[in-house]
Automatic annotation (TrEMBL), chains A, B:
Residues 4-129 form the Aminopeptidase P N-terminal domain. GO terms for biological process: proteolysis. Its cofactor is Mn(2+). Coiled coil: none annotated. This is Xaa-Pro aminopeptidase. GO terms for molecular function: manganese ion binding; metalloaminopeptidase activity. Keywords: Aminopeptidase, Hydrolase, Manganese, Metal-binding, Protease. Its EC number is 3.4.11.9. It comes from Rubidibacter lacunae KORDI 51-2.
């Protein structure tokens, strides 16, 4: 770890102690068991731990108070050294992260009184949190009491990315862009979704990164969180790939592209693609400090509705259609979310990060799935990811068909049956004057996508 | 799911109810959260559930009593259908696995009295097990009371693979063999361990399978459970790859090969490789019903010791060296383990499956890590995986250096410094007359390995 990162970590801790007087304990967590205890899922350290400690340690705790950092970690046992090799000692790790002191884990109870914390995901560490603090630690989604004040302070910090965070996001995005290119290039010769997924993830693994979330690589794009890859792919299909790398320090990436398996969009696919792209471009063009993220969502919805009106699928005035949530029949999710160490950054805290104080999720069909409702400020990183889907659970719902009977031309919609799902997603960093698309190197224009699919030079 | 599999599942359940009178509840378990609750690790259903129910369901329970099967599973919610697509209904799943009845999960408490169970790995489901059964369910490693009788019955069944299981193991092995070939082929042009790992895992993902365990792909083979891929690779290095596929039904594969990065073993590497291979071949040649698996371990150790004596690294009589555990300085682990739905089959039950009743782990340096100590019988699947490693934690340990001062020629050993770690691992099915190597299509001979490395025809 370099001096710059060490200085960054120190600055983050300093900013935290300016906001939180109580001592803070942050657990790294442990990898959960898969099918037996010696066969574990890959370890993913808690993002809050990573933000202040920088290293993806396993079964470690840091204590922050008044700018001082203490590391609690047990040294490798002799058996551990046999199976896992020599690793740095506790003191070496402590030096690497700029800790002022380091102790074994059994020294933790004595340093725990009155500490605030954030619940980790793995059950074993959560139990340890409760035992050591001698109180309930509310599992994620509802930090309470002293922990709530800490959570709010961490949100304030992590919402605004520092230079080190932005560099890490760029690194993660670069791997993801290369991975999507590889997926496009292999598609015309691939027989299954699994083969395309494998080509994409290969690039991420080859970059010594991992997946920030379960990849979606499917010709059934209308299944929003499709996590299986068993379908055959064929010319005429659109393939939707929502895949993002996560680099070793934990920083995530999140990109979606939709491309034709044959390398050529059909006229109907291209028409809808261009509508989604117009929504995507308009939302990004409007993203800048002082703008409500929710307005970007509504703007994307409006552009989408207008495009569908132009195509004869929706009927009426775009603005009215959006007010009636008619767009949500085809675009049922939010336009995006925070991005950082987590692909939905800080979603372990429920809506504490995504929603400004005093705001709550809407119960409107067209807004309830919006994960972010804040005034944008420089340093925020968000995704912009409008889409168009033909979801049977929505379009065949008799209640909705009746509700929107006057808004949809079903006969015209039937012309677009080769468009199951399209999403175009980029990562957007809010700058002082506007925004920067961190994933701009991966084209979005239909012609450019067509050129990349199957082009040998693209890998 | 075909009729054959349904019949197999029925036969397995019938055999279980012949052994266990009490009703049995088996949980599938749920995927644990990674960094927030909506971002989960890939779901891996409990192997005991898979063995009797056949489908990798999430958050499901089966009840077995007197040959009758009941499925407990909640239907997809409307929101679930939006995000995850339509899935078969409870009744469709029930028909697929040949269940006699199907209920929602809230019907479970009424059907739970006096049921035996096996603890699952994920904390949420384990908690549910305790709540619904109204008693402690000992987490893995120590099934107790009624659960112990059930565990012993399941072990008796799962130790002896039926035709369906053997077919599944073959399928998993075939993907793994192709994956290793791809890894060998890419090695001479790869720059890092990560690139080789990516080429190997790509084949597994492209086959719509997953990894049975965290891959080991490293030029530092002396780190037995090396789970990182950050090293550069260079001509002169040996690359050790211990990678196995797991197919959708859960059946695992487990294969290790060690190959020269350049495509050519150095004379010292080849000499040690041939010693390890001789140990591997001898153990497999001796594997048949009625043989103690422990004897295969001792045999491999003896052949290894003899080879190291011939090379001038060890001094003394091979048999005496093995009695003194001198071989374990270079071969500190067991010669293999059970293989099935789990890569270490049924290791969630501690040593209940691996060790015959009344047997316990030895505290001897050369035997304590042996995971299997049973009389082999037809239908067992085991791995045979001897190795040679130069582990600093062992070879630089002053106590061991003194203990084995007369047994090792340190000067001669220094000639072999380019051999960090070699392991050769195959899957072996015990047949009625001997054994069959399930992974025999992947060569082990040094010359054949050299031909595959970098050979374009090998992918």
């Amino acid at each position: 770890m370099g001096d710059t990162l060490r200085a960054t970590l120190r600055a983050r801790r300093q900013r935290l102690c300016e906001r939180v007087a109580a001592p803070v304990l942050l657990w790294s967590g442990c990898a959960p068991a898969r099918n037996f205890s010696a066969n574990r899922y890959p370890h993913r350290a808690s993002s809050h731990f990573l933000y202040f400690a920088g290293l993806p340690l396993n079964d470690a705790v840091v204590r922050l108070e008044g700018g001082r950092l203490e590391l609690f970690l047990d040294d490798e046992t002799p058996a551990g050294a046999l199976w896992h090799g020599a690793r740095p000692t506790r003191d070496e790790f402590a030096a690497a992260i700029g800790a002022d002191a380091a102790y074994p884990l059994d020294a933790l109870p004595a340093r725990s009184p009155d500490a605030a914390t954030i619940a980790v995901q793995d059950a074993r560490s959560l139990q340890q949190q409760c035992q050591i603090l001698g109180r309930e630690v509310a599992p994620a989604h509802a930090p309470d009491g002293p922990d709530r004040e800490l959570a709010a302070a961490i949100v304030a910090l992590r919402l605004v990315h520092d230079a080190e965070a932005i560099a890490a996001l760029r690194e993660s995005a670069a791997i993801t862009i290369a991975a999507h290119r590889a997926g496009m290039a292999v598609t015309p010769t691939a027989r299954t979704e699994a083969e395309v997924r494998a080509a994409i993830e290969r690039v991420i693994l080859a970059g010594d990164a991992t997946l920030a979330y379960t990849s979606i690589v499917t010709v059934r794009g209308e299944v929003l969180h499709n996590g299986s890859y068993g379908n055959a792919i064929a010319p005429g299909d659109l393939l939707l790939a929502d895949v993002g790398a996560e680099i070793a320090s934990g920083w995530a990436s999140d990109v979606t592209r939709t491309w034709p398996v044959s390398g050529c969009f059909s006229p109907t696919q291209r028409a809808i693609y261009d509508v989604v792209l117009a929504a995507h471009d308009a939302a990004i063009a409007a993203a800048r400090p002082g703008v409500e993220y929710r307005e970007l969502h509504v703007l994307a919805a409006r552009i989408l509705a207008a495009g569908l009106v132009d195509l004869g699928i929706l009927k009426g005035h775009p603005e009215t259609l959006v007010e009636r949530d008619a767009h949500a029949l085809f675009f049922p999710h939010g336009v995006g979310h925070l991005l950082g160490l987590d692909v939905h950054d800080m979603e372990d805290l429920g809506d504490l990060a995504g929603y400004a104080p005093g705001r709550e999720r809407s119960d409107r069909f067209g807004l309830g799935f919006l994960r972010l409702d804040r005034l944008l400020q420089a340093g925020n990183a968000v995704t912009i990811e409008p889409g168009f889907y033909q979801v049977p659970a929505l379009l065949k719902d008799p209640r909705r068909r009746e509700q929107y009977a006057d808004a949809i031309n079903w006969e015209r919609l039937a012309d677009f049956r080769d468009v199951r799902g399209i999403r175009i997603e980029d990562e957007v960093l809010i700058t002082t004057t506007g925004c920067e698309v961190l994933t701009a190197e991966l084209p979005t224009a239909a012609e450019a996508i067509e050129r990349l699919v199957g082009s040998a030079g693209a890998v």
